[in-house]
Every structure is written in structure tokens, then in C-alpha cells.
Design goal:
The protein has no helices and eleven strands. By secondary structure, the protein is mostly beta strands.
Length: 120
């Protein structure tokens, strides 16, 4: 029943901006750590940004100052505002939600991804 659905990917010129959204359903969204990962062709998946349930954000050094992650718990939605895009930002972007329960179990959910292409 849990679903994460990304949207907003597409083709932009280098230096441009794009805003990704991730709509979540089937979970108590506000209790999860959420965030974005990306995977470029030939590279391993890397963490882009996270937001804890307390609202604490973290970013990969490569995107710090250019990308901003936010969450709207009332809308069960996660966002990633991407500015000053570079060709090396080209990747499939995945949203995720994770929770470590008190009994030691781990709950982790992933979207199917949305492609971002920044062309020079």
C-alpha cells in the first residue's frame, strides 16, 4: 500500500532550475526520514539530500548551496529544488522514506525514479 511517486524530472539547460516532487501515500509521512538519491549511468547510487522527521536537512557536498530539500507533511510530499544545474547532475532521482522502529525493525520505501537531464 505504501507508494512514493516522483514527478518533475525532465530536460533543462545547464544553469537552469528544476523542481522535483515526491508524493507519498500509505504511511505516516511525518514520522519518516525522507530524502533523495540519484544514480547516473555507470555510477553507484548516491545520497543527495535528507530531511529527518525533526526537519533537519543534510546535503551531499556536490549539491550544497544549489539544491534545497523540503517537506510538506500536510500534503505528504517531499520536494527537491534544483538550481544552477550542471551536466554532472544528470541522473535518475529517487525519493525514499525510512524509519527505524523501536523493536529494531527497519522500514524503507523507494520511488521508481524520475530522470533529470542537464544539458550543456
Amino acid at each position: 500500500q505504501v507508494q512514493l511517486v516522483e514527478s518533475g524530472g525532465g530536460l533543462v539547460q545547464a544553469g537552469g532550475s528544476l523542481r522535483l516532487s515526491c508524493a507519498a501515500s500509505g504511511l505516516t509521512f511525518g514520522t519518516y526520514t525522507v530524502g533523495w538519491y540519484r544514480q547516473a549511468p555507470g555510477k553507484e547510487r548516491e545520497l543527495v539530500a535528507t530531511i529527518t522527521s525533526a526537519g533537519i536537512t543534510g546535503y551531499a557536498g556536490s549539491v550544497k548551496g544549489r539544491f534545497t530539500a523540503s517537506r510538506d507533511n500536510a500534503k505528504n510530499t517531499l520536494y527537491l529544488q534544483m538550481n544552477s544545474l550542471k551536466p554532472e547532475d544528470t541522473a535518475v532521482y529517487y525519493c525514499y522514506a525510512g524509519l527505524d522502529a523501536a523493536d529494531g525493525s527497519t522500514w524503507q520505501y523507494w520511488g521508481k525514479g524520475t530522470l533529470v537531464t542537464a544539458s550543456s
